[in-house]
Amino acid sequence: MMISGGGGGGGKSSWSSSTSSWVPTTSVSASGKRIQREMVELNNDPPPDCSAGPKGDNLYHWIATIIGTPETPYQGGIFFLDIKFPIDYPFKPPEVVFKTRIYHCNVDPDGRVSMGILKDDWSPALTITKVLLEVRSIMTNPDPYNAVVPGIAHLYSGDRAKHDDIAAEWTVRFAK
Amino acid sequence: NSPPWHLHCQFLDFPFCVPLLPPQVCNAYHDSRTDQNTFWWLEALHHAEQNKDFSTELIRKIEEAISGTSNNSKSSRVASRISIKKVAEQCNPVRTDINNIPYLVMSNVLVYSFRSISSLKYQIQTGLDQLEASRKTLLDQLLEIDQTMEKPNEENIECVGKCRNCQPNCDGPCALCELDILFQDYEARLFVLKNERGRIISSAEEAVDFQKKNLALNHFLSKLSQSSHSSTVSDISHEESKKRNVGQRVVVSKSASELELILGVLNYCKSRLGRDSVSAATKHLHVFEGMRKQFGHTRSLALAQAQYLRAHDEIKMAVSRLHPRENEDDKSLDDLGENELAAASSNFSHDKFMSLTMLSQIKGKLRYLKGLVQSKQKLQFESPNSSLFTRETTAMSNSTEEKGALLSKTDDETCPICQEKLGKQKMVFQCGHVTCCKCLFAMTEKRLQNNKLHNWVMCPTCRQHTDFGNIVLMHGTNLPILQCCIELTVVKNLKHPLVFKAHMEPRLKQSQEESCG
């Protein structure tokens, strides 16, 4: 890791010497600029039933809230999520963790969200706005075939009514 | 002097029959025309008929004007020698037409003054009519082509293509070649009018002689296969010297003989003519001068029209070349068949847009050329022509190089990764989406650090895989960039500002046009 990082640093220094417009993209300033732009965009055009912003002074640690969608067992609930940006964001996906307990087959007991776009399907063009929309989408339509909690997925497939009752009970207990 | 007198008496026996026609023709012209420009020189010659001394001085003035013009002309050395010989050989008047004039007039003082002035009237009228007719034919043809510039005639475009490929002697000359013939005819009449003044022969013979010279000129031009303006001038000069070498008694110069004749008449008759006639004469002389100056501009306009039609021909060929490629894409059915077809369609639309952009640029330049009619702007008239050619070449080369790239609005676009405004450089993926250069390098760097060795990179917008060889750098050399050559190529481009500017300039102008549109 250190050797690789050093090599990259060498490449960057040669770049900066050749062109004045070159800015190393893995520096804090580059990813920080991107995160700041996303913050401005979120304030200007927030997605429905969502909000997000930095937690304290650390630009790389955000907190987000998602209100449960009506007609789902999570309706009325307010769920808090932690979002942590890697240093080389946006070339690596951010880490999204549910701080509020939720009964969902794609959220593990520790609250980590399991979505394709947060793993191999991540693209540098995606933004936090789109990530939040995706999280809200899986709350409406769980994906039992890529579950991290097999029991919940099994119940969702086998006995949907009981699954919804348990989810609603968790929402009342933890999210309201 | 008695022997010359005797010879001329015998020589004049022949014209006894010829002048019978001129008086009637002159009267007919006089009755049919009430134009003041025509009337003023008739009035002058009318005075000459009534006064014998005035007639003698008039002819002497004309002779002096013609000889002076011949000495001052810019024609070749052969012409200068001939004019010197003419002055030296005044003792042998039979050899040259001009030296016949004073002896004819001296004889006419006694007996034939009326007929000499009548023949002079006839020649002036004939020259003016022929000049006007050839000028009208030329301008009608030129304006006819000019009116089709917005939507050029398909036949004209095809003729341009064929005429360029075939030899000039082919059966179907294009509209521009026909226009060139008219130009030669008009040029000969406008600049060689002194020929008709120099001879005292029947009009039929004059017409035949002129047609022969015209045919010889066309034949000479067809041999050389040249149609540029400068070549035409040099060819005419060569033709003139050729004829003089043969020994034919033809006096040609670049100044209008009719103009010089009228100048002489005007200078001598100022005190005898009325105010209206003097102003009409002055106006007429200015018209002649303007026509001679206008000739060059008219010629340049015709050349611009030729370039315009050739540009249309090239656009047609470029569009036709795209069809087979689309068919090829359509035939090859693989996993990316649908994407390939969409990409081919995008490329086709892009190339058509490029052609239309180039066409609109040429149209704008042509409109600008049309507006230039002032002699003061002659130099500016030339430079837009050359810049038109340069711009056309640049546009064509850019169209070829940027086939794989899609046009996108630079003003509104931002990089999807860093979300900053895209600069003038951007990387274009095979799917047509763009990103800035440094973000692409960062993506590549991340992939290398993860030890994932691939020949492709995923488009951040649509996740389609693009080989490194298919990524295009816009506003650079527009060449495919390999993975191992990315940094080297970009550095090279940035270190050669001339090449960079050459490619950047047309792009900027197109961007401006798009923003205006």
UniProtKB/TrEMBL annotation, chain A:
Coiled coil: none
One GO BP annotation of this record: regulation of photomorphogenesis
GO cellular component labels: nucleus
Biased composition (Low complexity): 13-31
Region (Disordered): 1-31
Amino acid composition bias (Gly residues), ranges on this chain: 1-12
Gene3D superfamilies: Ubiquitin Conjugating Enzyme
UBC core domain span: 30-176
Pfam families: UQ_con (PF00179)
Example GO molecular function: ubiquitin conjugating enzyme activity
Identification of the protein by name: UBC core domain-containing protein
Organism per entry: Glycine max (Soybean)
From TrEMBL, chain B:
Entry annotated with the keyword Amino-acid biosynthesis: no
Keywords: Metal-binding, Zinc, Zinc-finger
Protein name: RING-type domain-containing protein
Membrane-crossing residue ranges in chain numbering: none
Signal peptide: none
SUPFAM superfamilies, alphabetized: RING/U-box (SSF57850)
Gene3D superfamilies: Zinc/RING finger domain, C3HC4 (zinc finger)
Domain RING-type: 415-463
GO terms of molecular function: zinc ion binding
InterPro entries given in the database record: ATP-helicase/E3_Ub-Ligase (IPR052583), Znf-RING_euk (IPR027370), Znf_RING (IPR001841), Znf_RING/FYVE/PHD (IPR013083)
